[in-house]
Batch of 3 targets.
Target 1
Amino acid sequence: MAATDTELVLLACRDGDPNAFAELVRRYQSPVRSFVRKMTRGDAHLADDIAQEAFLLAWRKIHTYRQEAGFLTWLLTIAHNQFRSHARRRAETCCQDIEETARQPGGSPATAEDLRMDLQEAMKHLSDGERAAIGLCCQQGLTHEEAARILDCPLGTVKTNIMRGREKLRRRLRI
Amino acid sequence: MNDQANHEVEPDDVLDVLLRESGQYIPDDGFTVGVLASLSRCRRPLAHLLIMTAAAAVASILAIWWIPPLAELQASVAKGVSTGELTYFVVPLLVLTALASILWAEMEILWRETEV
């Protein structure tokens, strides 16, 4: 039977077992990388660098993990902080809204396939807060409370960002 | 999924489906191996913490030993103010800079070690 997260964390923390930590990385690399990709507006290379830094920091700080939240929530918190540090280093403001540009008029109603292709582009036009909240709740399936914990912001902000982000996406995708 | 791709669906459903699908699994493709390779390069947090703390402690002791008495510094500043001679400010400024640097380094160590 596969070891639980708690057992793996214990092994990694108490014994410094890199194999236990490797299993945790294998388990959670996809949601962490996926979330960071959203935050970097689809820059997969940069996202993987940030995700790797997040996992390395998680390894160094694994003794500070308290099981109040799930391991993925804890990892995503670190990943989000790493992204923010990176954004600060690049002198980007975290909650900056990108000016919405008008969509080309006159297009025919989109099919789901077209929409899927446009979604990635549309996500780039959300603010970081909106993208993060939508990425965590609508894409990763986390609860609003978990997202608020990860993003270190009030629950109401998460809800507002999701509502606003979804509205922007609908407008851009014309659905 | 292909059926969905070829059909228009209700607006709310479309957005939900699109968002869920865009959060699909990302294959590992060597990511875990890369993390593990980096682990072996950075697996010295305790040694790093000890060295940095010891260095900061030594710097603090040396600074305290080296710093002229406070009264002397105050007299120097007072003289500088009364005579307008900038050279009287050099030593107090150096002391202030050294203390601020040590304090900053110590804060940085603490912050790095507690950062998550």
Note: Chain A touches chain B through 47 residues (CB under 8 Å).
Target 2
Amino acid sequence: MAKTILLAHGSGGKLSHDLIENNLVPPFSNPILNKLDDSAIFELSGRLAFTTDSYVVSPIFFPGGDIGRLAVYGTVNDLAMCGATPFYLSISLIIEEGFPMEELKIIVNSIKEAAERAKVKIVTGDTKVVNRGSADKLFINSSGLGLISSGVNISGSNAHPGDKLILSGTIGDHGIAVMSQREGLKFSSSIESDCAPLHELVTEMLEVSQKIHCLRDPTRGGLATILNELAKQSNVGIWIEEDKIPITNPVRAACELLGFDPLYVANEGKLVAVVAPEDTEAVLNKIKQNQFGVNASIFGEVREEPKGKVIMKMTLGASRLVDMLTGELLPRIC
Amino acid sequence: MRFIDEYRNVDLGQKLVSRIHRVCTQPIKLMEFCGGHTTAILKYGIRQLLPQTVEMLSGPGCPVCVTTNADLDKAIALAHLPNVIITTFGDMMKVPGSYSSLQQAKADGADIRIVYSVRDALDITQNNPKKSVIFIGIGFETTAPTLAASILEAEQKEIKNFYVLSLLKLCPPAIKLLLMIALVGLSEVKLDGIVCPGHVSAIIGSYPWEFIPRQYNIACVISGFEPLDILLSLVMLIDQIELEKPKVEIAYRRGVKPEGNRQAQELMARVFEPTTATWRGIGKVPLGGLKLKKEYERFNAESTFSITPPLPREPKACLCGDILRGAKRPPECKLFGESCTPENPIGPCMVSSEGACAAYFHYGVSYG
């Protein structure tokens, strides 16, 4: 067997079939996938949520996870943030010629484990190989299908003045874990990605409250960016308090050192819930009982004004506007 | 967290703020030289805590911002050369030159890599022995010693494909020129005190600032970058001004010694020598920059590679130059927040993380 992925592995010929039948189907095995037809065929009725996301993280292995785990949990979380229970996923691999077979196996196994952990089935997929240099090692696209229970109505446009904001845990862990491995920035730290599936946490939250108005996971662009999205979508002002936002000391230290604002650093296992005030305590307590919500905190509230803006009250008493992320995160130089 | 929380302590902060309100009896104009200070002042909302009599002006202390279009155009021209890898601090990528930017050059196919220190540029050089690797050397006294150390390392390891475009600048000569212009009445800025740069002073010490109180009767305090550092520096400045006894004081004692960092100074002096440099907004500053000494000339990208950058031009109506002198505030610029935003910057002060316009844009609006 080849030690690296060759262009022929994506040609549709013998090598493609070998790769799919020996390396991709067995780990993900389930009756729908195993038929190997052009589409997955299944019954699913009710209100559906459908999402897709592409994963291009670099490096593909990072402390606390890899691109495979991210592809499963990221898509699962997109469904969860609409209050949906995820059922089926597609996994599409775009592999750069020369990619080590060993690494592919590790990532496929990681996808398998993540899917089992999240209780979702991978029912369809695709594999393409592109010329060296046409992709950076491995890209994954993943689409997901989930079911929304009746009575659940979660949307970024549902925030009402008076609602409280809950954050499910510390921010910045994923982004800093990935950045600590980047070429030109390597530093050793104990910081691990928070990459985790959040749909069970969401199910538990929905058991104690029907008044969860918005849910969002602060991935790319970080907490600041999703709060701005919510403020604009709901046409409300979002007021947060700096000292109520949980953040670990290693992440704080790394951000200080690199000149990053943790409000803009990516997370992969956290959520923000906008909840009616009367239900806030119950939802917070439920979140704290879940392993992915131990450090949850109420960190802000929704007001009428200023519409479409996010304001942070700082520890020294002043308040400032929190803008969306513009451009890329860059280190300070002076 | 240790070394962070102490410097953001709320009780101490409030004590310093009330002291400023109590002691300051007259309207005063202070300049924070450093862009890092401008950003911290706005980010922590310090301006909101000060009495209305204290006016804070931002100064030219942002290496990206004071880099001229002519110098940016050189960097962009170098990037388009075949077989060249450009290494640069990330902040430089989006700064518009006369006709293009490094970001645009990269999109057009130039090999440009963001590094976090010049040491990383040296690693890239060693990993690409068949390419010429050019480091875009912007920065002040803070950055110069590490650049000098890398050049010495490249020399010792006989690395033949490493080059530097030295755009390094020295801060005290620039302040001197600013104050001279103000003294002869050619400028609208009359300062009572200066918040002197913390990191630059960690290298050069406090002595190079002594001419400011002596010749210009202006108070000077070297400040750190945490909220309490800045508030303490403001208290010390206001005390000096009220007592009419201007001098150079160090509020940032954990970082700055009066004599500075001798080892870093020696490194700089071994590799570089002062030269006239053009600062955006200030113009030609005698001894306001650093060039490679003769014996290190072979690392000089400008003399090694033949480039013909376009004739530089400045964007119309952009007030970056005035803003860098403290003569105008960012919101006074017609372009600010309208056609010039961090996503579509027209001037460099809107790009850099230490740029006054970017700081005002991100943090400048206060809410009660």
Note: Residues 164-321 of chain A form a domain with the Phosphoribosyl-aminoimidazole Synthetase; Chain A, domain 2 fold (CATH 3.90.650.10).
Target 3
Amino acid sequence: MNWNLFLTELVAGITHGSVYALIALGYSMVYGILKLLNFAHGDVYMVGSFVGFGIISLFGGSENLSVNSWVLLLVMLLCAMLAGGLLGVMIERFAYRRLRTAPRIAPLITALGVAFFLENSAQLLLGAQYQSYNSYGWHGGSLWAEGFTLPSGVHVGMPQIIAVVGAVVLMLGLTGFVQRTQLGKAMRATSFDREAAAMMGIDVDKVIVATFFIGSALAGAAGVFNGLVYQQVWPYMGFQAGLYAFIAAVVGGIGNLPGAVIGGLVIGLAQSFSIGYISSTFSDAIVFAILIAVMILRPSGVLGRAAVQKV
Amino acid sequence: MSKFRRVGAVALVAGVLAAVVATSAFATSAKAKGCGTVSIGMLAPITGPAGSIGSDQLHWAQYFIDTWNKSGQKPTLKLVQGDTQLDPSKASTVAQQFASDKTIVGVIGPAGSDEVQAVAGILGNAGLAFTSGSATRVSLTAGPLKGFFFRDVPNDGVQGPTDANYMTKTLGVQSGDGVMIVDDQESYSTGLADIVQAALKAKGVNVDRESVSQKANDFSSLIAKVTSSTKVVFLPFQIASEAQLFAQQLKAQGKSAVVFGSDGTFDSSKFNAPGAYVSFFAPDVTTIAADAKIVAGFHKVYPGATSPFGAPNYVLAQMYATAIQQVCQKTGTATRKAVRLQLAKTSLSSTILGTPMKFDANGDVAGAAFHIFKIQPDGSYKTVA
């Protein structure tokens, strides 16, 4: 067995899967509360990624950074999460709030409209050119030289470690927040039954705003992790990543947070192993085949629960 | 009486409306025939995933038109923009609009080979010439588009064998060695990859053909398949920064295969991995001393980086301007047919691409040749063949 190939694909799959999982969490959170497929979520991730790129430029650009890599990363993450969160809140306030009682198709189409609006605005304001974090050039490439080497000689660079560990920390933080705080409890109650939660005195508006803020902040962080490992930033990057994250959320069971994480990892690993062992040409087809298979065998996703409806 | 008056008023209004419509139609028709201001359509992916390429193409064409008009040359030219988003169906819609607009006498674009095929019937039936500065599929100039479609860049039939020969003759790829070819699933990329693959296989080289989405940003899974016998990784990509990313990830995995990019990756600001090779149909205009004034003028109007896809559209605008001027001088009327026939005969003794420009009988650029560049340690491109 070629362990080098196997471990390389494993590392690639986990890294990619972590990014998908962070984005998928936002899809799942919003769907859990509002039953809305927020297709603009992928573009919040794009905005987060651009904010990170802006911070790099602000500190002298990738080749001439004036600050330590770790300080830079911290600032990038905080700014991207804040910008992503605020953007999510604005989207909810101006695009979705008035449509809460509208037929489901209305907010769905609005979400697509918001996605196109963000993509085109980004292109207009930031240009259509691909930009690069170029983390290989930070302080002479020291960030990629750090890390550890697996037995078969596969080097795992520090950016990959940061992306995976960062994603895990954020996911654990979210789980803790949802399970142990008052607002988290209100989120779960609203997710279970929005009308009943309102009748019990929960400020549903506040819960929805918090949900959008947190989910979008995670997407902003995913944007930075993606740029750190895969370098490229461009206005249309959110569409494909958002699509894969949406598939991840559905495979895991949309509305279910641990399901989103599992779905993200499944999609990431399926992509990398299909490229390595089957065919790079058909890797997308394989990912979608997994989606179809899961939908046929478990229509509510791996960890999703079938909804019981009273008639 | 009152009924009679009402009917009279309606007839009067209808008469006035008919006169307005007729006058405006006549004005449009007269404008099209005259050489006062002549319009050229531009089909380019101004927005969408290839927006960076398309906007650069548009900027270069527009820059030529603006320079022409400012210099007082006649006739005055106007560039009518049409955004295709590199989507053949959108290109067809815009082509219909151009075909209906009688002021347009010729079209620059579309950018992609699929788009060229999609609009061929529409523009051809409308009698319009159309010219591309980036569609390189060989078959485009080999069939029924003759006389209507022209391009000022060499086709893949020239590039593919040039690249394969360089790999075997200069880079030392021998029979039994491995070459990985990674296409980006677009027609330009797959077509060129097929040609290089066939040329290498004919020389006994083991080709590992792979494919990734144009939007991919993680090549690590693919790079894991690069073995010690893989001498070259050929990347017929359209986005230069994708080749840069591939080269960076290849290096990060400690692989020593030589990266070889096609003309789509020719952009020293985006793809500058030392030791890599790039083929291209023309030199980088930003590095040609004779072009310095034009490039500086362009950057003054359009600050920021320019891609190698842009400048050929400047030359296409120049070809149209020359053809239209000649038609106007001869006949005083720039019709689509006259412009098309004149374009086929137009010749420029020098262009910003560093070579003369003339179309051959099929509409391809006459005397086409590809150049090979090696990326230097400082990221600059040096001509090696």
Note: The first strand of chain A starts at residue 131 and ends at 132.
